[in-house]
């Protein structure tokens, strides 16, 4: 895998990133360390985490993933220098009072969150520091519509950028990014940064997969023209695009019991748990099999080869899953398969938006 540059930054990363939100909930510390070591040995130089992980978010596991990664760094002194490390500051609490008090994301909140992440990760600098979701009200995590009446913004984007600039100037953050953003948000962050000489966002981390291609409805042009890179998360649609739910839905007696969408009701209530998402995934999975591919191979190859994607974030719970996802690199999809994918999307659109 050749390394690619994120946005206009100096960060050079592999086109596959190891996501870690399962560490501390589905995956214990010892197994998490094994996955981190194997990922690095396989050539992946990019890992992503967040202060609110592991998932599903609970007060008891807040910060657990960062702590596990920090302990791995302590046990492997040379590993930190080989990796581009990304983490995220949580936006307004969204019903998680253990993240912070109040409904906003103030300058003091951002600084305190960064300091907490640095301590847990046992590092002096975060290479890519991302805002996990916008401070302002936007449709995200399965919400369909923007509603001005729900606006509760307290910290303007300019003030957020000024705070992030302080962290960059202090040497605690190298580059900044966004997550779960909209075209308006990306434009405003870039416009204000250029207008006021503040750090420019290099990346946006948003969902992108066969059952959620909403990125292609405006954000792809926005980020292409502004030179902001997409970090695609949930490329396997929370497991729906692996085929493991093709015979039994997550709530069926015969469904895989260890999977997140099967174990956690809170996950099933989100976009990935919609019946329409499962129905669409089953169609894509059958298309893969009809063309001599596994569902996982086709779903990942779709992300790995799209011009819109800079790096694809894979989340795993075992070494076997890690190898399967990494081995899908290099898989190409024929024009006929891509046409068939688009034909399915024309019918089902984006059920997991």
TrEMBL record:
GO terms for molecular function: oxidoreductase activity. Residues 15-344 form the NADP-dependent oxidoreductase domain. The keyword NADP does not apply. Keywords: Oxidoreductase. The keyword Transferase does not apply. CDD domains: AKR_Tas-like. This is Aldo/keto reductase. It comes from Acidovorax temperans.
């Amino acid at each position: 895998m050749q390394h690619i540059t994120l946005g206009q930054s100096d960060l050079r990363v592999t086109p596959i990133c190891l996501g870690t939100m399962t560490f501390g909930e589905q995956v214990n510390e010892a197994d998490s360390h094994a996955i981190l070591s194997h990922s690095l040995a396989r050539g992946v130089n990019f890992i992503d985490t967040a202060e609110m992980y592991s998932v599903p978010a609970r007060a008891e596991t807040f910060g657990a993933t960062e702590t596990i990664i920090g302990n791995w760094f302590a046990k492997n002194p040379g590993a930190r220098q080989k990796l581009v490390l990304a983490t995220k500051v949580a936006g307004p609490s969204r019903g998680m009072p253990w993240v912070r008090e109040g409904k906003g994301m103030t300058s003091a909140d951002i600084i305190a969150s960064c300091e907490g992440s640095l301590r847990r990760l046992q590092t002096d600098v975060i290479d890519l520091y991302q805002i996990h979701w916008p401070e302002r009200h936007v449709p995200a995590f399965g919400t369909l519509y923007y509603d001005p009446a729900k606006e509760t913004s307290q910290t303007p984007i300019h003030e957020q950028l000024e705070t992030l600039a302080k962290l960059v100037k202090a040497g605690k953050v190298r580059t900044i990014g966004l997550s779960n953003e909209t075209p308006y948000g990306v434009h405003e962050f870039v416009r204000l940064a250029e207008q006021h000489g503040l750090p420019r966002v290099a990346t946006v981390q948003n969902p992108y997969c066969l059952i959620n291609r909403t990125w292609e409805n405006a954000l792809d042009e926005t980020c292409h023209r502004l030179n902001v890179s997409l970090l695609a998360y949930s490329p396997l649609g929370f497991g729906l695009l692996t085929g493991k739910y093709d015979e039994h839905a997550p709530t069926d007696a015969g469904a895989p019991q260890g999977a997140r969408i099967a174990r956690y009701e809170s996950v099933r209530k989100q976009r990935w748990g919609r019946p329409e998402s499962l129905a669409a995934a089953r169609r894509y999975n059958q298309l893969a099999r009809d063309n001599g591919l596994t569902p996982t191979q086709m779903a990942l190859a779709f992300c790995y080869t799209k011009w819109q994607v800079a790096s694809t974030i894979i989340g795993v719970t075992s070494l076997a899953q890690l190898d399967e996802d990494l081995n899908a690199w290099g898989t190409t999809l024929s024009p006929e398969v891509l046409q068939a994918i688009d034909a399915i999307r024309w019918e089902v659109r984006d059920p997991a938006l």
